[in-house]
Each structure stands twice: as C-alpha cells, then as structure tokens.
Amino acid sequence: MTSEFNKTVRGMRDFLPEDARKLRFIEHIARETAELYGYDEVITPAIEYYELLAAKIGEENRKRMYVFEDLGGRKVALRPEFTASVARLVATKLRSAPKPLRLFSVGSLYRYDEPQFGRYREFWQANFELFGSAMPEADAEIISLTDRFLTKVGLRNYHFKVGHVGVLRGIFSHEGIDEEKQNSIMQMLDKKEVEKAINLMRETKSSGESLDTLKGLLDTSGRDLNSVIEKMRKIVDGYPSSVEAVENLREIVALLKDGGLKTGILLEAGFARGLEYYTGSIFEVYVPEMNIALGGGGRYDKLVEIFGGEKTPAVGVALGMDRILIALEKQKTPMRYNIPKRLLIIPVERSMLGEAFKLASMLRDDGFCAEVDTMGRSVTRALSDADRRGIEFTVIVGPKEIKEGKVILRHMTKRRQMIVKLDKLSEKIREESD
C-alpha cells in the first residue's frame, strides 16, 4: 500500500516548478493568441454525461474514455476533448448568440491510452473554435491562427499536413456505404491500415472504380499544392461531392497563400482523422524531430445539430500543449516567460520580522518577487541558501540600518554589498540588474 502512495497513477504526471512554468508559458501564448483573433474563453466541466462525449468521437476514443457511474447512478465520463462540450454550449446557452462565435478553451483532458512518448492519460490542450461560418475563410483563419500561435511560442521548422474528409466521404456515399462503415474505413485509414480499409470496401460491394479511386488518392500527396489539387480533381472526376470537396480545399489553400502564410503545407489526398464528426477540411501539425502530431483540427458542420442546436457550421483546432513543450525542448528553444526579479529579505534578528514583512510588501507593490526568510536562519546561513537557490539579490534588515531608514542590499552573483535608503531600494535593484 505504501508504494502506491509514493507514485502517480499510471499515465498521470507531476509538474515540478520549472515544468509547470513552461506549461503555463505555452498557455499564456495561447491566451494572447485568442485575444489577437477575438476568441472568447469558455470554461466547461471536466465531467460530462457519457452520451454527450461519446457522440461522434470515434470508436477508438470511446473505448479509451474514463467512464463511471456517479452516486446518482448516472453514466458520466471525464472529458477526452473539448469540442463536444463547447458544441453543447453553442446548442444551448449560446443558441441565440450572434454569429460567428469565436471560442477558446484550455485545460486538462483524459484518455485511457497506453502511455508512451508524447502520449499521456492526462494531457493539456488549447482549443480554438469558430461557429457559424461555412465559408473557406473560416477554415483559413483557424490554420492561420495555429501558425501564429506556434510562431509566437518559438517553434521552428513545423509544417501543416492538410486534407479534406469530404473527398473520401463523397466516394463512400456515392457507393452507398452507410455512415457506420464509412467511419470504420476512415478510422482504419487514420491508423494507416490501408489493406483493412480496402477489404472493408470490398465487403460493401463497392465498385472496382471506387477502389481504384481510393488507391489513387492514397498515392497522391505533395508540397506542390496546385499540382496535387489538379491531380485530386482528375482522380475523383465522376464523384460530384468529392469534386466539390476538392474545390473547397483549393479555395482554403489559396486563401492561406494569398494571406501570406509562409509555413510549408503537405497536401495528402487520402488523409483521414479518427474523430467521426469531421465533415470538411482537416489538418495536423508536425515537426521533423517528432513523428506525432502536435495538434490538429478541421471542419465539423453537423455536431451542434446532434446536440439539439440549429444548423451551425463550425471549424476548430486542438493544440497539444504537452507535445509542443516536448518539441520546444527537442529544438532547445528558450521559453521567454517573464519572471519577476527574485529577492530574499533576511531579518538580522526576530525583532526585525515586522520590518521585513513591511519591506517585502513594498517591494511586491513595485513588481518584485520578495520572499522573507521564514526558517529563522542566521544571516550567514540565509545568504548561503539564497546562493544555492540562485536568488540574485538579498536585502538584510538590521536594527541600526532601519533606524536610519536604510537596509543592506547584497548582489549575490557579483558578491557586492551596499547600504541603500529605503525609498531608493527599488530603483537601486533595477540599476544593479542592468
């Protein structure tokens, strides 16, 4: 029993101060990006009804949800993603809100995956979703926003993998394949189980032409966007819905390029994602150092209706903060988060504690991180502790100096000490920091 108390539950992690600081830095950039693009934050519960979360999430993800009965006998689950919860809000409490609705969410999510590199059972995401527009400019905005966020966070050499589920679903629907089997085929393609997907199509009595069309799409990808789109257009000729999807993809890509996107795009004609609710464009983000997506998204025009809302087209992206953190570390990218200048205030004797607390309060008002030594250490031991913890400045509060309205300021790294008037202390610290 004791050993269980000494470790985290499998797939869960402790974030020590430095790691927590890095994660919050990424969250801070996500919030800044949301503000730049006009996305308002919403906060939804970590626990929702199972039926809500299970709808259209895909069979693989349904198997990996943390599901349980609450004390009232209701079947509930920990959220495995944000989109279902946000779509519920749009269908209910935000039903009459003017469109488009730009919404942002950030927090922890839960899936019972096998823990491995970049995959945890508790993970963190930043989510951006645009409701109300079926236009290609909405898809382009979400990809543009993702690009801005990743640039601001300091990521390098990333690229977008882009596709359109409408191209594949157009073929399946034309062949009369029901939605359940379409979802199974898409999930197999998402897992690169191409032979299984083709065999399932054969079982549905799909035509040889449709099988050849699918194989042609799966062999079509590249960074010469116009060339790939033209090839896709020729391959799906004869499938009207697929042709329409290709043209929609053409418009989105053109908007991105005309809008100044410089990040590389890899177009994959046979690209599929596991979530069942996607209806249009889809994309993921990759860096050379990792073979797993840092984030992904796409269009889901029918989800709000499933939850009883009005017909509301939507597009969004989920960005994996944990994976972005790993990528930044692999690229050795310094995270430029602002930490207030850290000071340790050391009272020479206990009678000086009140003065030390008063001084700490004054320094905090001036924007410094001020700690008071709370261990009752001698000045020598407190200075040694400050040195060990990398604190740059210490302020020694003694009775003689306080009577004169002064304190002793010590620059720990330069090993320099000076007597400073209280009303000049903040100014002197800033001067010495330069």
Q: How are the SSEs placed, and which strands pair?
A:
Layout lengths: L1 H4 L11 H21 L2 E2 L5 E3 H5 L4 H5 L3 E3 L5 E4 L4 H9 L9 E10 L11 E10 L4 H18 L5 E6 H10 L4 H12 L3 H10 L4 H11 L2 E2 L2 H11 L4 H19 L5 E5 L12 E6 L8 E5 L3 H4 L7 E7 H10 L11 E6 L5 H13 L3 E4 L6 H10 L4 E5 L1 H5 L2 E6 L4 E6 L3 H9 L1
Parallel strand pairs: 1-5, 7-9, 13-14, 13-15
Antiparallel strand pairs: 2-4, 3-4, 5-6, 6-12, 7-10, 8-9, 10-11, 11-12, 15-16, 16-17
Helix pairs in contact: 2-6, 2-14, 6-12, 7-12, 8-9, 11-12
List keywords for this structure.
434 residues, alpha+beta, five-stranded mixed beta sheet, Rossmann fold, elongated, BirA Bifunctional Protein, domain 2, 2 domains, single chain, nine-stranded mixed beta sheet
Descriptive account of the structure:
By secondary structure, the protein is an alpha+beta fold. It has two domains: 2-330, BirA Bifunctional Protein, domain 2; 342-433, Rossmann fold (3-Layer(aba) Sandwich). The chain is built from 18 helices and 17 strands. The strands form three sheets. A nine-stranded mixed β-sheet has the order 1-5-6-12-11-10-7-9-8, sandwiched between helices. β10 and β11 form a beta hairpin. α6 crosses α12 (240-258). The longest helix has 21 residues, at 17-37. The mean pLDDT is 92.
